[in-house]
Amino acid sequence: MPKTDPDPVFFTAQIRDMEQQAMQLPKPPQLMEKAGLAAAQVVRDQVLKNPNHRVLVLAGPGNNGGDAFVVARYLQEWGNAVTVVFAADRDRVPADAKQALQAWLDSGGDICNDLLDGERSWDVVIDGLFGIGLDQSHHRPIEGQYRSWIETVNRMAAPIVALDIPSGLGSDDGCIYGIAIRAAITVTFIGLKPGLFTNFGPECCGEIVLRDLDIHLSSPPEPQAWLLNDALVQTLLPPPRSANSHKGSFGNVAILGGSTGMVGAALLAGRAALHLGAGRVYAGLLADNAPVVDFSQLELMLRPPSELFALKPLNCLIAGPGLGQSAQARSWLAMALDSGCILVLDADALNLIAQYPDLAESLSQRKTATILTPHPAEAARLLNIDSTAIQNNRMKAALQIAQHFNCYVALKGAGSICCFPDGKRYLNTSGNPALSTAGTGDVLTGIISALIAQGLSPDRALLLAVYLHGAAADRWVRQNRGVLGMVASEVITEARILLNRWIYQHSGDQHDNSR
To answer: How many CB atoms lie under 10 A from the CB of residue 11?
Structure first.
C-alpha cells in the first residue's frame, strides 16, 4: 500500500480507550474544555463570523452535554446571545459535565428546560444531546422530549452544528436510532468515526471537521479502518504512459456475462474497461443469438464465452454482469473460479456463489486475487442474512465477506466500504444518489478491471476505482445541478476525464487535461 499515511478511522471503543489513556497522563488534558473551545471556534469562524448572533444550544444528560455547555460559555463570552436548553437531572450528569454546567451558570448563563417550536429565530443551533454516548450497549432509540427537540430543530432554517456526531446517529454503524440531527457541520473529536461516513452518516453529518484535541499517546490503538479520500487516491495513480507504448502494454480484460435480455450489462462493463485505459477488451456473451459486434463501441471484441479462457495473456476476468443464474452460467462461473486469472465478481456471479456451496468453496480456495463488489442485498445472500442486518453493521459485514471468502470486497452503498482479506477497511468519501440507477455497478467492475490490466495491484485498483466511480458521479452532479437522470454510461465519460486529469496533474506533465 502507499507510503503516505491515510487518515485513520476509529471505532467507539478505541476512542474511549484514547480518552482513558489521556486521563492517565502525568498532566491530563482537560478534554471537555478543549472540545468545547474547538467547536466554538469552528462555529465562530465558519458560521457566525462576527458577534451579536442568536445561538441555541441543546445540552444532553452526558458528556456531550458538557461539551455543549463549554461551547455556550465561549460563544457568549465572544458577544453572542446564547440560550441553553437542558432538561436532565443535574445531580445525575457525569462529573466533568456537571463542572461545565456550573461554569456556564457562573459566567451568567441561564438554562431553559424546554424548547418551544417557533418561539424564536436562531442564527445557529448547537447539537450537544448525545454524541457517541447514545446508550452504546443496545442503542436505545431517541424518544419523548429529546425526539421532539430534534424534530423541531431539524425543521428550522438555522444551520445545525453537531458535537462529535449528530445525536441519534450510531458512531460505529451510521444507523439512525429513532431520529437523528441533520447537521450542516459536524465537529468530531479525537478521531474520525465510521458512522460519519457510511449508511446514514453522509446524510446527517454535513461537513466533517476533525479536532484531535492535541492528544499525544505513547501507545494509541492501531486503526482498523481508514478514509478513502482524494489525498489517498493521489498516491494510487498509475504513472503517465510512455511514448514508447502499445496496446499490449496496457493489458487484456475479458467479461463473462450478457445472457439473454441482459447483454447491455456486459457491454457497459466492457466500454468502461476500454475508456479507462485497458489495451484490449473482450466480451463473452451467453445470450442466444448474441451480437457479434457492438456498433456503439466497435473496439469491443465480442466472443463466445469458451474463447475467453484461451486468451493469453489475460490480466483480469470479470464475471457477473448480466450473467444470469442458469446451469450454463453456473458452469462458466465454475471455470472462471478455477482459472488462475485475477477475477472481479459482481451481480449474478455473487448470487450463484451464495446459492451453490461448491462455488463458494472454489472462491475461498483461490490462490489468485478475487474482488467482489456486492450491493447490500447481494452481501446478505453471501452471508445468509437479510439486507437490514447488512446495513445495520456495514463495517462488520464487509469484514465477514472478505475473510470468509478470502477476497477483496467493495460493499456498495452510501459510504462504500472496501475491505481486504487481512481485515483493513477503507470508507469511501465520494459518490452521491445519482449512482442509484441501473448499470453503475457494471461500470465499476469495468473500471476496476482496466486499472488491474494497466498494472495496478488488486488492492490499489479497487480503492482507486471505487473513489473514481463516485467522483465521476460527483462531477456529473456539479455540471447538471442535480442528481436526477444520470445514466451509467455517463459515469464512464466523467471517470475518464478525471483519471486523465489526476494522472497528469499529479505527475507535473504539461498536457492540459482540464478541458
So the answer is: 21
Q: Which residue has the cell 456556564?
A: 104
Burial of residue 437 (number of CB atoms within 10 Å: 0-12, 13-18, 19+): middle
Strand pairing class (124-128; 316-319)? unpaired
pLDDT at 188 over 80: yes
Nearest to 269 by CA among 463, 430, 439, 411: 439
Per-residue pLDDT, 115: 86
d(CA 335, CA 341): 11
379, part of any domain: yes
- How many structural domains are present in the chain? 2
Residue 386 pLDDT? 96
Query: Cα(253)–Cα(453) distance, rounded to whole angstroms?
Result: 7
DSSP state of 93: S
What is the pTM assigned to this prediction? Answer: 0.95
- Which of 394, 395, 331, 339 is closest to 366 using CA atoms? 339
Residue 434 domain-assigned (yes or no): yes
Separation CA 228–CA 415 (nearest Å): 10
- For 166-186, the pLDDT digits (tens) are 999 999 999 999 999 999 999
> CA-to-CA distance for 252 and 230, rounded, in angstroms?
28
Domain ranges, residue 380:
232-507
In this structure, the answer to whether residues 193 and 252 fall within a common structural domain is: no
Same structural domain for residues 189 and 334?
no
Contact 59, 36 (CB under 8 A): no
Q: Say if residue 32 is in the same domain as residue 54.
A: yes
C-alpha cell at 372: 467482489
What CATH number is attached to the domain comprising 502? 3.40.1190.20
